[in-house]
Amino acid sequence: MSTFAAENHGLVRVRDFLQRASLNNIMQTVFGRRFEDGSEDAARLSEMVREGFELLGAFNWADHLPALKAVDPQNILQRCAVLVPRVTSFVQKIIDEHRQQVTKAAEPDFVDVLLSLDGEDKLEDADMIAVLWEMIFRGTDTVALLTEWIVAELVLHPEIQSKLRDEIISLAGKSRVAESDLNKMVYLQAVVKEALRMHPPGPLLSWARLAIHDVSLAGHHIPAGTTAMVNMWSITHDPSVWSEPEKFNPERFLEQDIDVKGTDLRLAPFGAGRRVCPGRALGLATVLLWTARLVQEFQFQADSLHPVDLTEVLKLSSEMATPLLVKVL
Ligand code: HEM
């Protein structure tokens, strides 16, 4: 990043770095391999993830007006029909390589773990492909987007950035922050929690849920067949739940510690219950580590020609409408 910044008058579009890093990070965990920048595999994979996001985030009129299903006016079914076999063949190749141990890694990766399941737990290839793809798909953008929001808030609040840097330096010095340091960094945890509150990457959790029975929820009758959404964004911005909800104030989490992994519904950015995010520990640890290392290494400052714009755009995740462009020193 520093070389790039030096070559570009100190200005960096952080999203580009974060998205590449995030894809590689998840590929390493799930498939046990990284993809060279500019390689054909890396380009195919990013393009498939992007297409998947567009399709899942699109409002499909045919879901709501069944008469349109046969016409597929937005071409959504057609695009899914093209994407599914591409994903299947990409992931199947990686499973086959693991079976033949072409890519033998020192540490078992997630594919090795799935392949080692036996007896009643044994998975068919089709199920493995679904699980693996879901992890890549769900684990890539969320981490990159959240980190971009964090850097944006740190640029807007230099005093918070410098307090955070002080904590990191006092606990890790100049040595690269390690995962084992994270638990001690209480202010870092507070900053990340506050970013999850202000900018939950999945503001509607998994978008839609279908009631398969009649249900009564908080006094409301929800008939079977209803599609419902959980608006986590609205809860995390509700003034009856949070004081000064529009203020980025990590200190609130120093005053009261709130679990973000699904036990406290005031702040459940990973969902809760049976469909809670299975990657929450990994996602959280990654964002904490990246934030700590970025702040330890660099100073982020606003550029007068490109002010930070906190406007959100709701795609499958909630992202910055204007990609963040900052000075990196
Ligand atoms: C900061 C990072 C992340 C955030 C904020 C996040 C958030 C979420 C949310 C809100 C859901 C929907 C929960 C619900 O509907 O109740 C979800 C589901 C899911 N997440 Fe994450 N996630 C993150 C990282 C990851 C990572 C790193 C992985 C994989 C390694 C992952 C894998 C999944 C999967 C597979 C699901 C679907 C679970 C299901 O449908 O049952 N996520 N995530």
Ligands? protoporphyrin IX containing FE
What would the CATH topology be? Cytochrome p450
Largest sheet: 3 strands, antiparallel
Number of domains: 1
Helices and strands, in order, run as HEHHHHHHHHEEEEHHHEEEE
Global Rg: 21 Å
**Quick check: average pLDDT?**
90
- Strand content is 5-15%
Structural class, by secondary structure, is mainly alpha
Shape: globular
CATH homologous superfamily title:
Cytochrome P450
The unreliable regions are: none
Q: What's the tally of helices?
A: 12
What is the CATH top level name? Mainly Alpha
Separation of termini?
A: 10 Å
Please give the order of strands in the largest beta sheet.
1-9-6
Architecture, according to CATH? Answer: Orthogonal Bundle
Number of strands: 9
Helix content: 40-55%
Write a concise keyword list for the protein shown above:
two-stranded antiparallel sheet; 329 residues; Cytochrome p450; mainly alpha; binds protoporphyrin IX containing FE; single chain
